[in-house]
Amino acid sequence: LKMSWFWLYLPLHLLTGTSLCHAIKAPTTSSQQSFKTNLFNFYHSLILADGKETTIHLLKDIPKRYYFALEEGRVLAPFSVTVTPCDVPIEWSILVYKFLPEKAAPGDHVTQEVSKSQKASSIASTIFNYKGNSVETYMGMSSHAALYLLEFLSTERDTHITVYLTTDTTSGHLYPELPADPRVNVIGIGHTTVTLTWKHSPSVLQHRESIQYCLLVNEKHNYKSLCAAETAIRSSGMKLPPTLALSLSPYLLEPQQVMILSNSELSIINKVSSGEVRQVCMGTKNTYTVPSLSPNTQYYFDVFIVNLLTNASAAYTGTFARTLEEPEPKVTELKDDKVIHVVLDGKKQKFYSLQYQARHKKIHFTFQLCRGQIRVHITRNGKTVASENLSGLRYFSLKGKLLDTYLVHLRSTEEFNSSVKVQASPHFHKPLFPLLPESLKIKSFSKLRTCRSVTIAWLGTQEESKYCVYRKRIEEDQIWRELQSADRCSGPESRHKSEKVLCKYFYDLNLQRAVTTETIKGLEAGTLYLFDVYLFGPSGIPVRYHSKVVKTRKKC
């Protein structure tokens, strides 16, 4: 701001620490104390930057003050102040001191001061106050030189806010504009999806390349600003990238976060104690279907319009919706020792139920995950006895009463097909699968690689078993598909005969020495190979180790 006559005169005493009580003819008796208090407030205040968003940290019950000035000589000088609470409700107010070239009217609360060149008087008044956690904007106009004092107070706990002051209302807006109707509307609800739409922001039409919409989905409540949403997620123990709009780098993610990028849409999923928090930035599309939600669950949806250049945002009026209940799945009967192969279509059939009537007190459930991701939930007479995500091979040994009824609910957590093999058996001495080693990983030795051979190793067990090794030549662009889409339940019968390398038997009673190695020869130089090891137990059902990709040396 340019210096005006009062700006040179009044703050000089404040900045030098000289008491204005000697320079100003202070009010008498009843108003004298409030006059001194106002002087103290200015003395202990900070200048609020013009045209810049300022982050202010507030301590509980300790007010914080900022001030700014409007210069003399401007006719009807406009200004606006926008305050965004980033957590709890706050109290804030604006106090104005107007400096008049003439004497104030009788009866006003006035302080007079005399300079060498002219007389001036100041009128102090509160022009705005607010309490709450909504984003509020005060727009004002001044025809006289004035000094404004802003006071902020948090009475609940330590928090932070952002404040934006501008005295130039003609050169555009820091914050993206909201439409006349800023509501987010629900236009479709399914068992696992909710479809939303909202009116376009005028800013999208003007600055399409630097503006985008971001959606926040959570199970607690709606948020009135982007910084309030970020604060809530951080307080749940989650570190969050600076904003939804800037969360485009995978290295910013925490271990509890999952990032999905498809069809030019970025999704970040946070696993927090209060449920799932999902963030999606979808460019300038104003209709979006939120996928992979849980049935019969209430979700809250908030849309933010974000300026990628300034990182400023504006919040639409959020909404909420409850997904539909999943229809009761058909129940398939499980019989003793019989293996059932269950395939779940991630898009059409996400649930599958199996029922087992116990004829013994002890029951042994076996699950072998073949493809995708599946969650298993087991109940006994209506009470949950086990619930977890399946990984590889999993056993559940349960003890109950004769004729107990067990229900096994299987749910796909993927959009594509998932499959699993299930067996219920009272015969603990007849396991369906062989005894497994501590790890099913295959190790390769880089120093032993040559242009024509590769050496691999894997762990065995204390039980003599048969191991068969297979190899397959692949290309670089096939690695991900081979590793992700492989059916982990399929045995060697699904492999081409030319891929078989060898079969061998081995075991060691000392688990520390239950390791075997094999050097596979006759390979081509500079070529990628996929290696698989199958373990066969007494039942003849194989267990497949995790596939290993190794490349032979190009030059030797």
UniProtKB/TrEMBL annotation:
Residues 1-23 form the signal peptide. One of its GO terms (biological process) is nervous system development. It is found in: Secreted. One of its GO terms (molecular function) is heparin binding. It holds the Pfam family NDNF. The keyword Cell cycle does not apply. Gene3D superfamilies: Immunoglobulins (2.60.40.10). GO terms for cellular component: extracellular region. Residues 176-313, 434-542 form the Fibronectin type-III domain. The keyword Disulfide bond does not apply. Keywords: Glycoprotein, Neurogenesis, Repeat, Secreted, Signal. It comes from the Eukaryota. Secretory protein that plays a role in various cellular processes. Acts as a chemorepellent acting on gonadotropin-releasing hormone (GnRH) expressing neurons regulating their migration to the hypothalamus. Also promotes neuron migration, growth and survival as well as neurite outgrowth and is involved in the development of the olfactory system. May also act through the regulation of growth factors activity and downstream signaling. Also regulates extracellular matrix assembly and cell adhesiveness. This is Protein NDNF. It comes from Tychaedon coryphoeus (Karoo scrub-robin). The gene is Ndnf_1.
